[in-house]
Each structure stands twice: as structure tokens, then as C-alpha cells.
Amino acid sequence: MNKRESARLIVGAGIEGDRYALGIGAFSGSIPAKVRDVSLIALAGIEDANQELEASGLEAYLASETRRNIVIEGMSSDALNQLIGKEFSLGFIRLRATELCIPCERPAKLSEKPNFLSAFKNRGGIRAQVLDSGDIRVGDQLNEALLA
Asked: Of the candidates 129, 44, 136, which has an alpha carbon nearest to the alpha carbon of residue 90?
């Protein structure tokens, strides 16, 4: 995972050039198929998980090691999880939160660090469908859309 200052989101695909947008992600062929346009995780959730890990003498996870596309500042994991089924915006781009990202073993295996499953339970982030194409940038605010 590479940190970027901006990314182009594409309706029905996700982040331009991302492994899932290209159909080559580890879980791209999952049955039943899932909307995997983008994944988001709360920075506060990463920090909480890392505090638990470090208190047990275990190594913390870098944000990039969570394997999520977008890290959200200023929002708790619980608040992010509450977006499931709702539309929201990131900057000027509309998205719909489709499901929780239930932690799996892949981040632990790739980073060679244990306990991802337990540390990130209820903090694994969400998956979202991209509803508008366009650019997002570091610092863009996440806002829940007002639906009429």
C-alpha cells in the first residue's frame, strides 16, 4: 500500500489503478461478489487497536498495513461503522457505505505481525460504493449526506 496525496475515484470501479479496480485483488473473485470500490478505516480505530497490542507487548500496525484504501481522521470506528447503508461524501465525491470490513488474516500474514483479527474487531473499517467519479485529497472531510 502506498500513501498518496490524492486519488481519482471511478464509479463502479474504485480508485484508479487499485488492485480491486483492476479486478486483480486477492478477493476480487469472491462469491457472492461484493462491492469493493473503496475501503475506509478510522485512524482512531487504528490507534485504539495499537494501544491494546502494545499493552500486550505486541508490535503495532502501520495504517498502510491495515490494507484499507482511505484512513479517516476525526471520526471513531463506531461512528464510521454507523454509516453502513447510508450515503456520505468525501470531499465532493458521494459514496454509499455497503458493509463492514471484517478483519481477516491477510494483513497479519503480509506484515508478519500477529493479532490483527482480535485487535481490529469492530475497528476494521467499511467498504463503500463510489457514486460519483472525481478526485479526493488528503484532508477532504467526510460528511454524511442529507437525503431528501
From this structure: 136
Cβ within 8 Å of residue 62, ≥6 positions away: 111
Read off the pLDDT of residues 13-57 as tens digits, 9 standing for 90 and up: 888 877 665 555 555 556 556 677 999 999 999 999 999 999 999
In a domain, 2, yes or no: no
Give the range of the structural domain holding residue 50, as residue numbers without chain letter. Answer: 8-144
DSSP string, 12-69: TTEETT-TTTTT-STTTT-SS----SEEEEEHHHHHHHHHHHHHTTPPPPPGGGGT-S
Place of cell 479486478: 23
What is the residue whose three cell numbers read 461512528? 79
The pTM score is 0.87
User: Which residues pair with residue 39 across a beta bridge?
Assistant: 127
